[in-house]
Design a protein that fits this description.
The chain is an all-alpha fold. It has nine helices and no strands.
Length: 198
């Protein structure tokens, strides 16, 4: 799920969209980029080399929305609005690709199903929750000062599901040390996820 966004931050980035505070925009981009990237990646229908282009296109559209004040807080949470924007952008990209005959990883029928999802909010929320968790895991494992062996142990045991005995033996650690690694990193991930908001 996308993080809760304070209304003051939305006002400040709207001001930046009209030429003011670059620091607030940088904070917003830093907060949302990993979650948007993970959401796009979790769908599996955008090639990895295109993910950065999609993220950039979302932020460009967002600046235009904030300039024209299309988003209205009284209509609902910003994250739901942004999630819908991401979903629509991805559907538009699929349609353009299908029309050009490139990137047919999703059929025209599947795109129509995505477009006509009866409960779009539930659909978006489900993927955004997965994306938020994936972004938090990636942040902890790649952007913190964890020892490479600790990261390897966590990936093998917690993410890849390898048996504890195999991981402990291969990395030369005890079973108890492996359980402690998992416990500590799970708590770090939960803290990062909480920072994204409920």
């Amino acid at each position: 799920m996308f993080p809760d966004t304070p209304k003051t931050l939305l006002h400040k980035i709207a001001e930046y969209a009209n030429g003011d505070d670059a620091a607030e925009w940088a904070r917003f981009v830093e907060l949302y980029t990993p979650v948007i990237r993970a959401f796009i990646g979790a769908r599996g229908d955008v090639v990895p080399s295109d993910v950065d282009d999609v993220v950039q296109e979302i932020f460009v559209r967002l600046v235009n929305v904030l300039r024209t004040e299309v988003y209205r807080p009284e209509k609902g949470r910003f994250r739901a609005y942004l999630g819908t924007m991401v979903r629509r952008l991805l559907i538009d990209r699929h349609r353009r690709n299908l029309a050009r005959g490139v990137g047919e990883t999703v059929s025209a029928e599947e795109v129509e199903i995505l477009d006509e999802t009866p409960d779009a909010a539930a659909y978006v929320d489900m993927h955004l929750m997965e994306a938020r968790h994936a972004a938090a895991v990636e942040h902890v494992l790649s952007r913190t000062m964890l020892d490479p062996r600790t990261v390897a142990a966590y990936r093998a045991y917690a993410l890849d599901g390898e048996p504890a005995a195999d991981v402990a033996t291969r990395l030369g650690i005890t079973h108890n040390a492996l359980r402690q690694i998992k416990f500590r990193i799970d708590h770090m991930i939960a803290a990062v996820e909480a920072a994204y908001g409920e």
